[in-house]
Amino acid sequence: MRKERIESLKFMRVVAMNLVVLIHVTAPAMANVPVDHFLYDFYLMLNRFTRFEGAVFVFLSGLVLFYNYEDKPYTLKTWLTFYRRRFMFILGPYLFWSIFYELFSYYMGYREYEGLRSIWDNLLVGGSYYQLYFIMILVQLFFFTPFFIYLIKRFKFFNRYFFIIGFALEFIYTLWNSETGAITFPFFMVYLGSFFFGGWVGVHYQKVKHLWNLKAALTFTLLTIGVGLVYTYGFYFSYTLGQPFMSYSMLTLVKILFFATSCYLLFKLGTWIEQSAPTPILAVIERLRIYSFGFYLVHPFILVIWSNLLVAETFKEFNLYIMLRFPLVMISTYLFIRMLHMLFPKAWFLFGNLPAIRKESKAS
Asked: Which of 136, 273, 280, 310 could join 321 via S-S bond, C-beta 3.0 to 4.6 A?
């Protein structure tokens, strides 16, 4: 029997995509607005409180993969097909845009050409531009997915509690690597909890897909906001002011809890929106959803263009332009991707697996 399509996930993907752009747009404010200025707390909320966006992307990947593959035949053919599709639609665009950003960085003077070995090293760890490291983390998680699926098939205890195991391993790894500094490249263990949590929701989807009542929704929302504020200001006092009010291990634990509750809250909210939102709103969400990978790859380039066009001469202009850049980057990035999609409808190496223009238009 064919499984139902989980339409509510598109909302989560669009939210995470918007937050990635927002974080990068507001980054200059964190470096230039004085910490004693009243606007600093505003930017802190926009730039630090929103840092669960990476966990959401990983949660989504885990949910989709475990949901689709936990009951498929565990055969060589299954996993060869899995690797071919996943790596083609992810590594193809990754390689294309990595080379693009290498050339772009040389052109803009961000760094000097140091030979092909330097480019190769950047490709291995996602170092060609600041957002690309995350894709290599996903690639690592995809590589180990068959092993993870084997564990949930083989061990009932693991099937039932593997999201707890994931968060525990992530916590232990984070503390260990903070002490030793042994691993300096982007490593999948920093998101293992989110990946397993998404996988657990996927495996047990029929049990968790129901809507909350109002009381449960409000309680969980307030819990998430509360934990998020503790994380945000814990980070602020520890790394901005250098006056920590909690240990590194406690801050790490709070961060993991905040990311987990944020993912689950968005999952539940997405289910409600899918059932309640007007059709035009759902159509807009779908339009943005299909280009989410493209947004992640392209938006830093578009942001540089707008940053060079909107050059502030006063503090007031600086804050105004920060706010203007977000909608301008979102709109410009969408139009840029849309144009390339129409010009090269089958160019999977640009943005991955996109729907055909004709089918997509009818669906919208």
From this structure: 310
pLDDT tens-place string over residues 204-224: 999 999 999 999 999 999 999
The residue that leads in pLDDT, 364 or 160, is 160
In the chain, how many domains are there? 1
- 293 sits in which H/E element: helix 292-309
Please provide residue 250's backbone torsions phi and psi, each rounded to the nearest 5 degrees: -70, -40
DSSP state of 190: G
Spatial separation of the C-alpha atoms in residues 149 and 195, rounded to whole Å: 12
- Print the SS3 string covering 102-155: HHHHHHHCCCCCCCHHHHHHHHHHCCCCCCCHHHHHHHHHHHHHHHHHHHHHHC
Token duo for residue 341: 């999609």
Burial track 288-316 (b if 16+ CB lie within 10 A, e otherwise): bbbbbbbbbbbbbbbbeebbeeeeeeeee
Please give the pLDDT value at position 358: 62
Under the banding of pLDDT at 50, 70 and 90, the label for residue 363 is very low
Q: Which pLDDT value is given to residue 1?
A: 59
Distance separating alpha carbons of residues 47 and 157, to the nearest angstrom: 38
> What range does the domain containing 110 cover?
9-363
pLDDT at 7: 85
Whether residue 4 lies inside any domain: the answer is no
Rounded Cα distance between 171 and 167, Å, is 6
Instruction: Please check the confidence at residue 3 and state whether its pLDDT lies above 90.
Output: no
Residue 199 lies in a domain: yes
Which of 20-29, 148-157, 198-207, 340-349 has the least mean pLDDT?
340-349
For residue 2, the SS3 value is: coil
CA distances from 7 to 64, 115, 180, 283 (A): 11, 46, 43, 12
Q: Is residue 3 part of a domain?
A: no
